[in-house]
Amino acid sequence: MRVHHLNCGTMRPLGGRLIDGRPGLFRRATMVCHCLLLETGTGLVLVETGMGTPAAVDRNAWLGAGFVRRSNPVADPAQTAIAQVRALGFDPADVRDIVLTHLDLDHAGGLIDFPWARVHVYAEELRAFTEPRADERGRYRRIQFAHGPQWTSYADTGEPWFGFDAVRELDGLPPEILLVPLSGHTRGHAGIAVDTGHGWLLNAGDSFFFHGQVAAAPHCPPGLKWFEGRMETVKRARLDNHRRLRQLVQERGGEVTVFAAHDETEFLRLSAGDNRGLAPGRGLRHPAP
Predict the structure, then answer these.
(1) How far apart are CA 262 and CA 252, in angstroms?
(2) CB-based contacts of 76: which residues, under 8 Å, 6+ apart?
(3) Which are the contacts of 109, defined by CB distance < 8 A and separation ≥ 6?
(4) Is the pLDDT reported for residue 59 higher than 60?
(5) Entry pTM
(6) What's the rounded Cα separation, in Å, for the pair 186 and 133?
(7) 260-284: per-residue pLDDT in tens?
(8) Which side of the chain, N or C, has fewer Cβ within a 10 Å radius?
(9) In whole angstroms, what is the distance from residue 120 CA to residue 107 CA?
């Protein structure tokens, strides 16, 4: 399996080091939308979609004026997932499956660019969209799903994987791609694990926001920490995920590379080794206990 790391949406919010941890307060921070494009034996699989082509045309209409004001997303058509698929020399029609961590607008906004693809998501996340609780109303951008995505949803059942329970393979996809339950940021939030043959990648989505949160001495810029708490749906689950992901990184970091969706530091580190040919992995049946 060959893995491509894509940034499908740069954001430039105010706050400088309070958001991205780098020096300088009176500047705009940088955040990314870290997606994966996987070359498999049966076609291309996109893990996350970023904000989508309409965000580069009319940000306010597609993303909402409030999000645009807070996050200041860059309106760059070249950063869309479909443009990057083409730039890599692929036909977008070969993206037959999309796997999502959750349905927030900066993760699922690009679904409209691949309306033929099957969309894999936890059933509980789909339920949060279709039957929102009071605290979920207004969270999801319904305009982004008006085209009628081809949903394939899953219960949070499965097998153990590196200390996580109920991890499962996905219908019609290689066993090297797994859905990992990480509720908290949203009630149906998932991680997406990919066995590259040289180790596992775990796209942890928004289960944490800053690479320092899974360090041995955890830390997070205060502005980002405040935002993370403000956007949570299930606090106890979110904090438990922090603990389990930190333990995974500290104990099995040589086997599993964990990254957060919006951390530019991790995106730059991982994309620096992009486009390597990777041997097939082992799938759910063989991970270490």
Answers:
(1) 22
(2) 10, 56
(3) 9, 49, 50, 51, 52, 54, 55, 62, 63, 141, 144
(4) yes
(5) 0.93
(6) 11
(7) 999 999 999 999 976 443 333 333 3
(8) C
(9) 13
